[in-house]
Amino acid sequence: MSTVLSNFDTWKKFLGDRVSAAKKLGIDEDAIAKLAYEIGSFLDQRVDPKNEEQRVLKELWDAGDEGERKTMAKLMVKLADQSS
Fold first, then answer.
1. 50: helix, coil or strand?
2. N or C: which end of the chain has fewer CB within 10 A?
């Protein structure tokens, strides 16, 4: 997983593959976004950013309130979906 985290394009592709798999299983976008929010919260608390892009995302996450973080999670799902 460390290779996935060290390169932002690899990270987006990894997430995109997971979003595609979830959609194939019939999981709707709201459920995927909710899970992305939960994962974002976990990563914020437990994972040190591995590159500049992740550092920016963490700083934005930390600056945002709950609603803004949920919006960020939805946007990350969209970005990842475009990368798959």
1. coil
2. N
